[in-house]
Amino acid sequence: MDLQIDDFYHDCAAGLLNLYLAFPRKVALYIEDLIGREEPDEFGLPSKRHQSCLGALLWLADEGYLRYESTIHYEALDQATLTEKGFVRLTRYIPTLVSDACLTPSIRRQQGTLAHHLRQALHNRDSEQVARLTRLVLDQRSPASDIA
């Protein structure tokens, strides 16, 4: 099993959601807020897990999902925000994700977004759901085609 890929999905989802919750403000996105405190190695360098999380955030920036002004050492991305691409992907409504037709249209719209379902999957620590939904955010095709 490729555990680093599960971590990658978690880190992408957590980073994007933190920026979504702050949108449209620019914020410092701290690695510790996403994965918890990781002790540095014996040389004072960040742990591999910490470096992987930072790498996932930098990859998201390279792929156009977020932007930032600088890094704060290995600790954070400074002045980070979602790009249009990241915002649109997270707010995309997928009707098959909403099961209760009795909800008001505004609640149905909010609960049908990828952001809402990613938040629930992270809260429930459901790594399979986090991976599936993160792949939908990153998928260039229409995400509705991948929902069963």
Task: Give me the secondary-structure topology.
Layout: H1 3-22, E1 27-30, H2 31-35, H3 48-62, E2 66-67, E3 70-72, E4 76-82, H4 84-91, H5 105-111, H6 114-123, H7 127-138
Antiparallel strand pairs: 1-4, 2-4, 3-4
Molecular structure report:
- The chain is globular, with a radius of gyration of 16 Å.
- The protein has 7 helices and 4 strands.
- Mean pLDDT is 87; it is low at 143-148.
- The longest helix has 20 residues, at 3-22.
- It has 148 residues and is α+β, with helices and mostly antiparallel strands.
- The protein folds into 2 domains: 3-83, Arc Repressor Mutant, subunit A (Orthogonal Bundle); 86-141, no CATH class.
- It has helices at 3-22, 31-35, 48-62, 84-91, 105-111, 114-123, 127-138; strands at 27-30, 66-67, 70-72, 76-82.
- The chain starts with a helix and ends in a 10-residue tail after the last helix.
- Strands 1, 2, 3 and 4 form a 4-stranded antiparallel beta sheet that branches.
Question: What's the gist of this structure?
Answer:
By secondary structure, the protein is of the alpha+beta class. The chain is 52% helix and 11% strand. The protein has helices at 3-22, 31-35, 48-62, 84-91, 105-111, 114-123, 127-138; strands at 27-30, 66-67, 70-72, 76-82.
Provide the descriptors you would attach to this structure in a database record.
single chain; 148 residues; alpha+beta; Arc Repressor Mutant, subunit A; 7 helices; disordered C terminus
Structural class by sheet pairing and helices? alpha+beta
Helicity level: 40-55%
Please state the oligomeric state of the protein chains shown: single chain
What number of domains?
Answer: 2
> What is the string of SSEs from the N terminus onward?
HEHHEEEHHHH
Question: Which whole number gives the mean pLDDT?
Answer: 87
Rg over alpha carbons: 16 Å
Q: Please, how many helices?
A: 7
Please count the beta strands (DSSP E, at least 2 residues each).
4
Q: Tell me the name of the CATH class of the largest domain.
A: Mainly Alpha
How many strands, what sense, and barrel or not for the largest sheet? 4 strands, antiparallel
Taken from the alpha-carbon principal axes, the silhouette is: globular
The portion of residues forming beta strands comes to 5-15%
Q: Ranges with pLDDT <50 over ≥5 residues? A: 143-148
Distance between the termini: 24 Å
Under the CATH scheme, the architecture of the largest domain is: Orthogonal Bundle
